[in-house]
TrEMBL record:
Its EC number is 5.3.1.9. Belongs to the GPI family. This is Glucose-6-phosphate isomerase. Signal peptide: none annotated. The lineage of its organism: Eukaryota, Viridiplantae, Streptophyta, Embryophyta, Tracheophyta.
Amino acid sequence: IKQFSETFRSGSWVGATGKPLTNVVSVGIGGSFLGPLFVHTALQTDPEAAESAKGRQLRFLANVDPVDVARSIKDLDPETTLVVVVSKTFTTAETMLNARTIKEWIVSSLGPQAVSKHMIAVSTNLKLVKEFGIDPNNAFAFWDWVGGRYSVCSAVGVLPLSLQYGFPIVQRFLEGASSIDNHFRTASFEKNIPVLLGLLSVWNVSFLGYPARAILPYSQALEKLAPHIQQLSMESNGKGVSIDGVPLPYEAGEIDFGEPGTNGQHSFYQLIHQGRVIPCDFIGVIKSQQPVYLKGETVSNHDELMSNFFAQPDALAYGKTPEHSR
């Protein structure tokens, strides 16, 4: 991926008409879409990543609805567009229909021979990749035991993200993932963040009977975190039976939802404060990607955001006495 993305970004890889390709459309659904989209959204406003992506576009096509197709190729020129078809088996119905639709968009403009220059694949099924018309030499594999929902750190996420931002930027994301993996593997349970989060989920859902969890990142760059976690958690844990097929005598799996703060505060927080008990995961960010400090304001915009971040869980945890609320 490092070698290919460098060739692509340098302009050495050219399309059917000899033009360098600067636009990428990644076609996939579920784990082949939500994880990479989350990371892409987070990187778009990072100054270093944005500088590395200057002059390039990365778009995602997931929904089989033709409206999504129209949006993903709006104002794009097939001559300067590379399509990455991401499907573990290369049989996912929605992805393959969208892939055929985008293929027709390329062929109708540039001819059948253009497919090998304008379409590549991420898949474990090289036979079907070849039958589709994509050169197997331009297919990037990953281990067949990698579940789609966990695949953002495989070629599924790393390839399109590297084409947009360059491999060194994505490598730092992988190093962060490796760091938490090592923490999970080596830290004692009482200090193990993933273990504690998992135990809290079991406690809240199965023992206390709270069905939902709100994921509340106080960073607009993390606006696609909640949809990513929905798929990671709810597709994995949304089962009413045990591994042996026996119905469970208790509830398992959370209903995940969320929005970035402060938007959520003006949407569904009222229900959490005064209606239903909903456990919340608040996520704060120490340093803003885009710091702003307006003259005459008491604090920076980011400090204002973080004031909300600290105030909301405080209010949820402790509330107000009748005297305070008057």
